[in-house]
């Protein structure tokens, strides 16, 4: 393979696919050879401008290429990914799924990626999940979390028609992942769209129920360490304030609470900086792809 | 979806047991709900809304946990009501279609789907589900002061096309002055008035809830919200008992007995009020700065915790353009204000 990099493809040349391409162009281990759509589009034209083979003939075209990609990033729709995924699997191509199809295990890079580096298909969960699950995990790895709740506030401009038409999908998937991936016993997720101009930068709040004797210093240390881990791929991922601890209350069944306030500023590659919710999806997907590629390079086929 | 036939000039919708949940910090008991529903129902109120203040699924750290599961409260309300329909609120992004199905199973007849006034396109999924469940529908365009009348009308159109029988101009911040309210009512009636009813939900932060309700009725709004003793977020809602008395004096038929509602407010609701919603400094600032009324108690709690004035928190919330549901940001704002105070 050329220059010792793993050949990859992006299926879905919209805003997400284009931002992902910008990130992957900086990769030492991934070589995006192909960008695929189903109609001619600005995204395909942008890819060709960068010297990448781009086609509007869909996955049929992609699977005729030589060499085949070893990793494909899917930024289309849930329905398209459901149709495409078996074909990738048959061709032995690993799929990183940015759609809401959720066919493979849900992956959040600093939390559980190493468990799934060889999975044929991984799901990138949701934008709110990528932003908040690291914090839920940062708490739950230190102390039991019977319940965690996340509130994601995103700018209206960064919420696309797919998200809007099925906002329950966000709520269900994210609340499930807060427990399954984040490590809370129960999870709840809330999303708010705010149309204020200029657009607000993505904000997330993570509330974790903790026992009355939980070690606050250990939680705070764990949160800071995890923020640093996420900053490796999302430099604009920052705490607005130190974690806030609330004393136990009867209405919390005698438990206390820690609240973590986050701002997620995007890298401004193709998407605007305020769209941290979209950036953290593409950045996390790029991270997943890079680590998968690095593994392929270290293990001779 | 056709709109329901109305027997009276105005269909009063009482939200004591939903918007009032904010003022009760979501601590309603089953007995309070039963007593209130019985009084409202016997007074002739045709729609009674019962939910967590932030709608079904709202029980949370962010908005406050419910004392009693809202499905229990909805079922109790359904049992007590002889003629009234029981409505629930659903805010997409907080509650889901699953919550709606549970509410339907518990006995809810109607759902009011609420979005920020520019975000109606998150609601069609929920209107579709409501139609599939055979429920009556209404749509809340919240914080209606934040978008011009013609844009509000376009958002109402999205809701009506999705199956909403009654889009509302929802003045969540109690911020609409009389001419601003009128312009929005007229725009909604012009856009959807041939196929849907238009509603108005007011708050008293600048004291206009009842006055705007009168204007609303004059220009063709048919659903008007109130709460007994004004029990609701901020300085409360238009008091249902006052609306009943005013419309009676105006000769506008509502189908309710004003004296029975005045008694209900005094004898049933007043004894359980934690405090009478009033136009105090914090609530006036909410109306003035256009802040979501439900932020009031959360701002007061954060003010105490972080030693900054609640009215300063609320003003900052208005300046940065927070919308309904962003209660978590109140803590963030309080922390920032406290830090600024130390510098």
Automatic annotation (TrEMBL), chain B:
* Assigned EC number: 4.1.3.39
Q: Does the keyword Lyase apply?
A: yes
UniProt key word Acyltransferase? no
Instruction: Give me any GO biological process, just one.
Output: L-leucine biosynthetic process
InterPro entries with a match to the protein in the record: 2-IPM_HCS-like (IPR050073), 4OH_2_O-val_aldolase (IPR017629), Aldolase_TIM (IPR013785), DmpG_comm (IPR012425), DRE_TIM_HOA (IPR035685), PYR_CT (IPR000891)
- Cross-referenced PANTHER family: 2-ISOPROPYLMALATE SYNTHASE 1, CHLOROPLASTIC-RELATED, HOMOCITRATE SYNTHASE-RELATED
Assigned protein family: Belongs to the 4-hydroxy-2-oxovalerate aldolase family.
Give the protein name, as stated in the record: 4-hydroxy-2-oxovalerate aldolase
The species is: Pseudonocardia hydrocarbonoxydans
Q: Corresponding gene?
A: mhpE
């Amino acid at each position: 393979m050329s220059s010792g990099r793993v050949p990859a493809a992006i299926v879905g040349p919209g805003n997400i696919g284009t931002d992902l391409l910008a990130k992957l162009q900086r990769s030492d281990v991934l070589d995006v050879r192909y960008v695929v759509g189903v109609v001619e589009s600005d995204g395909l034209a942008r890819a060709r401008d960068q010297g990448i083979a781009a086609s509007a003939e869909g996955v049929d075209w992609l699977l005729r290429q030589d060499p085949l990609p070893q990793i494909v990033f899917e930024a289309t729709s849930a329905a398209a990914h459901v149709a495409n995924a078996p074909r990738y699997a048959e061709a032995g191509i690993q799929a990183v799924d940015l759609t809401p199809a959720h066919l493979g295990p849900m992956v959040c890079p600093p939390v559980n990626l190493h468990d799934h580096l060889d999975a044929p298909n991984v799901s990138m969960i949701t934008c709110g999940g990528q932003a908040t699950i690291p914090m839920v995990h940062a708490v739950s790895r230190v102390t039991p979390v019977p319940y965690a709740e996340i509130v994601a506030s995103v700018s209206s401009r960064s919420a696309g028609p797919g998200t809007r038409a099925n906002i329950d999908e966000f709520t269900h998937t994210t609340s499930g992942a807060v427990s399954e991936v984040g490590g809370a016993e129960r999870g709840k997720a809330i999303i708010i769209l705010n149309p204020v101009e200029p657009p607000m930068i993505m904000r997330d709040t993570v509330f974790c129920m903790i026992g009355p004797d939980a070690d606050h210093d250990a939680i705070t240390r764990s949160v800071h360490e995890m923020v640093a881990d996420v900053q490796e791929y999302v430099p604009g991922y920052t705490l607005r304030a130190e974690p806030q601890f609330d004393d136990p209350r009867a209405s919390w069944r005698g438990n206390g609470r820690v609240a973590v306030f986050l701002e997620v500023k995007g890298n401004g590659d193709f998407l605007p900086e305020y769209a941290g919710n979209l950036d953290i999806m593409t950045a996390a997907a790029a991270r997943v792809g890079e680590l998968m590629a690095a593994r392929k390079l270290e293990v001779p086929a | 979806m056709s709109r329901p036939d109305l027997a009276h000039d105005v269909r009063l919708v009482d939200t004591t047991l939903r918007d009032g949940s904010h003022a009760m910090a979501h601590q309603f008991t089953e007995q309070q709900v039963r007593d209130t529903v019985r009084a409202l129902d016997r007074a002739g109120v045709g729609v009674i809304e019962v939910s967590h203040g932030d709608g079904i699924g709202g029980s949370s750290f962010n908005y406050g946990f419910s004392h009693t599961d809202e499905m229990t409260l909805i079922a109790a309300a359904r049992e007590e009501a002889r003629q009234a329909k029981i409505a629930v609120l659903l805010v997409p992004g907080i509650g889901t279609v699953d919550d709606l199905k549970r509410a339907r199973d518990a006995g809810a007849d109607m759902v009011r789907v609420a979005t920020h006034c520019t975000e109606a396109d998150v609601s069609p999924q929920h209107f579709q589900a409501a139609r599939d469940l055979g429920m009556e529908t209404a749509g809340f365009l919240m914080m209606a002061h934040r978008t011009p009348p013609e844009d509000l009308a376009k958002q109402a159109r999205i809701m009506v096309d999705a199956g909403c029988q009654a889009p509302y101009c929802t003045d969540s911040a109690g911020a609409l002055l009389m001419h601003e309210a009128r312009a929005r009512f007229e725009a909604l009636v012009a856009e959807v008035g041939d196929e849907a009813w238009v509603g108005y939900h007011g708050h008293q932060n600048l004291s206009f809830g009842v006055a705007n309700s009168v204007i609303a009725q004059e220009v063709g709004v048919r659903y008007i919200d109130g709460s007994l003793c004004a029990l609701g977020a901020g300085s409360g809602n238009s008091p249902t008992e006052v609306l009943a008395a005013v419309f009676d004096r105006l000769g506008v038929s509502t189908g309710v007995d004003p004296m029975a509602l005045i008694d209900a407010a005094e004898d049933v609701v007043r004894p359980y009020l934690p405090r009478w919603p009033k136009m105090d400094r914090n609530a006036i600032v909410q109306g003035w700065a256009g802040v979501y009324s439900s932020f009031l108690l959360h701002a007061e709690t954060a003010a105490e915790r972080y030693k900054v004035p609640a009215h300063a928190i609320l003003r900052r919330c208005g300046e940065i353009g927070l919308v309904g549901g962003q209660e978590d940001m109140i803590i963030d704002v309080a922390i920032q204000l406290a830090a600024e105070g130390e510098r």
